[in-house]
Amino acid sequence: MCAATSLSLPEMDYVSLVCCSLAFVLYCNTLGSEFVYDDRRAILTNPDLQPKTPWSQLLENDYWGTPLQDPSSHGSYRPLSVLTFRLNYLAGGFSPWGYHLVNVVLHCSATYLLIKIARIVLPKNKIGSIVTGALFAAHPVHTEAVASVVGRSDLLACNLFFLSFLAYSSHVSHRDSICCSNFYKRYDKIATTLQKTVTSCNKTNHERISSKFQASDRWCCRVARVKSWWYILVFLVLAVCAMLSKETGITVIGVSFVYDFVYSKNQKKKQKRSFLILTIALLLILTARLQTKTPRFSTADNPTAREPSSSTRFMTLSYLPALNFLMLLYPSALSFDWGMDAVPRIQSVRDPRVFFTLCFYAALMVALGIGASKWMDYKSGCTVCQRRNSDVHSHHCRMTNNNNITVQCPCPAQKITWRDATIFALSLIILPFLPASNLFFYVGFVVAERVLYIPSAGFCLLIGIAGARLWKNGTGRVYLSTGFVLVLTGFSAKTILRNRDWSSEENLYRSAVPYNPPKAYGNLGSILNAKGRIDEAEQSFRKALEYRPNMADVHYNLAILLQSKQKLDEAIQSYQRAIHFRPSLALAYVNLGTALIATGKCEEAIAVLRQASKLDGTGLKDRREHENAKVSALLQLGALYSDQGRLQNALAVYREAADALPQHYPPQRVYNVLGETLAKMQLDEEAEKWYRAALEAEPDHVPAHITYGKLLAKNVSRSAEAEQWFRRAQRLAPHDASVYHHYGAFLVINRRYSEAASMYERAAELSPEDFELAVAAATAMRKAGLQDEAELWYRKSVRMKPTDPRGHTNLGAMLHLNGKYKEAEHSYKKALRLQPDDETTLTNLHRLYGIMT
What does the record give under GO molecular function (predicted)? Predict the structure, then answer.
C-alpha cells in the first residue's frame, strides 16, 4: 500500500539526532533555574500537587487549582498538564530541576515529531527537514514555554498535537492506499506478455491469474480499512488529550482537515466521510469545552479589550497578529509580560504600524492565493482514479475497466508539490493561533510568547520550504548555507542568553524593564525586598509607580516594606492607596489593621479588620488568597480583642473565623486560638476540645502541643501528661526557641530549676536577639544556683537593650549577690538614670549601701 514519503531510517535518525541534540544543548542551562513568575502559583501554591488532594480533583479544578465552578476560577481546564506537575512532585517534591528536565525533554520530543511531520508534508528533500528541525530547536521565542515550568501546558499540547496529526496522516495514507499495488505491477507484466502472444489459452490463464489477485487484493484492502479506522480513533483520542493539555490543542482537527483537503487527490467519497467525522468531533469537543466558563482577566492584562473606541480596538487587535509574526521572524524583543501599555494602542491611521499591518495581511493573502491557485490548473485525469495522466496509467486502468475488477486503481499518486506544503504550513501557523487572536473572544494577554510554540512549527516549515526550493535551484548554495548557519547561530545565542533571564526572577524582571517598566519594576521590588535589599526594593517600587501610579499591588508591597522599616505613617498611606485602587485587596486591609494597631489607633484597626472580613471575592483571580486574608483579618481582630482583655469579643470573632473557614485553609491555627481564649476564660473543658481538634487536623502542629501542654499543666494530677506534650513539641521543632521557652516555664512552675535553666539557655541561644529570653535564662540560672552563668546572661541582656532600665537593675542585683558591690552600684545608678523613681532599684541600692558601710 502507499505510505507517506519519508527518508530512510538511518538518514531520518541522523537528522533527528542532530536537531534533538541541538534542542537539548541549548536548553540544558535551564536545568538549574528556579521557579519564576507564574510557576509559583501553578506549582508552589497549587493544592492539586499535594498528596492529600484526591486525584479526581484534577478533573474538577482549573490549571491553578481553583474549582471550575468557583466564580473566581480562571477557566483554563488543563488536567493533563497538572497531572504531569503532580507526578513531578511525587518524584522530587518542589525541586525545580525535575520540572525543568521534563520541559527540556518535551521540547526535544516536539522537535523530533516536527521532523517526522516535515518528512510527510514536504516534497522529498532532506534540506527542508533539516532547516525545519534545526530552526524549531533553536528559535528564541520558545524560551518562555521551555524555561518557564508553567509553559509545560504548551509543550505537552504541542507533542500531543503532533502525535494526533501523525495519526491522522496515517489514517489518510491507509484510507487512500492502492491495495496490493505490487501484485498489480507483477500482474501487469504478465498480462502484457500474454497480450503480445495472443493464444486461446491465454484468456484462460488471464482469468485464473485475475481471480488469484482479486482474492489477495480483498484481504489487503480489508487490513487497510481496519488500520484506517484504528488511526482515526487514535487521532481523536490524542486530539482530546491535546485539548486537555491546553485549549489550543483542539486546532489539530482544523490542521488535519486542511492536510486531507490539500494532500488527498482521490477517494472523494472516503474523504467526505473523514471530513464528517472531523466536523462532528470538533463540534462535540467545542460544545463540551464551552460548558466551562470563559477565563476572566483584568483591564491591565489586555487593555485593548476594554478600549471604548471601536476603531482603536480594531486597529490594535488587527496589528497584534502581525506583531506576533514579526516576533517569529525577528525575535529580538522578548518579555515575560506584554500587558498594561507594553504595546501602545493604535489610535490613528497615521500610525506607522497601520501600514505594517496592511503589508502583513497583503502578503498573507498573496501566499494563500498562490497556494490556492493550484486547484485551477489540473489537467484531465484517469477515468478510474481521477489522477493526472501519465504513461503508467494506460494498461492498468484499461484492464481495471474491461474486467470489472472492484478494486482501486493502482496508478501512482501525484507527487507532493511545494504549493501543497505552503498551504499546510500556513494553516499550521494560522489555526493554532486563532484562539489567542482575540477574534472569537478576548484573551487575558496582549502578546504571549508561549502561545506561539505550536504556530512556530508552521513558520519553521515555511522557512524549510523556502530553503529547500532555493537549494534545489542549485545557485548560491554557499551563500544560502552561510546565511542559514549565521541565522541558526544567532538564534542559538539568543536562546542561551534568554534562558539566563529565566533562570531567576530577578534576572527575568530586569530583562523586561525596557519593554514593560511598571510591571518589571513592581515585580523586581518584591524580589529585592524578599532578599533583604530594602533600599533597592523601595527604589524599584517608586519607579514602577512613576510609570503607572494606579497599581494597587505595588502600593501594597511598598507599604509592607515601609512597615518593616517602622515608617508606619507612610506605610498606612500606601495601604490606603492600595485599597483605593483595588477595594477588594483583602491583604491590604489586614496589614493596614496591623499598622494601625502599632500606632495605637485600635478603634480604626477594628473597623478596618471588620471591613476586611466582609469583602466579597467573586471574580478575583486568586480566590484562595482572598479567603485566607479574610480569615487572617478575623484572627488579627480576635488577637486585638484578647490583648484588650475583651475575651468575650475575641471568642465571638474566633468562632466566626471557625465557621467561615474555606476548604483549603488549615484549621488548626483557628482551633488553637479558640482553645487559648477559652483557657484564659477558665473554660478548660471546652478549651481542651478545641486543642484536641487542632491536633486532629494537624498532628504536627507545634503551637497546639504547647498550648495544650500549658492547659494540662494547670491540673497538678495531669502534670506528667503535660510534660509529654512539651517533649513532643521539642521533637517536632528542635530549633524553635518558643518550645524551649514554654517547656522551661513549665519546669520552673514545678521547681525543677536546673532543667529549666538548661531549657531557657537553649531558647536564648536559638533566639540571640530576644531580650526577654535572655532575662528568663538568667533568672532560671539564678534560681538554680548558677550565679556566674546568671551574671553572664544578665550582661548579655544589657548589651541587647542598653536603654532598658530593667536590664541594669537585674544585673545590679546579680552583681550584688555575687559580692561585686562597686559594679552593682554602677548598674543601679545606670538604671536610675533611665528610670529615676523606680522603687525596686532604689531599695536594692539602699541595701547595697548598708552592706558597703
Answer: dolichyl-phosphate-mannose-protein mannosyltransferase activity
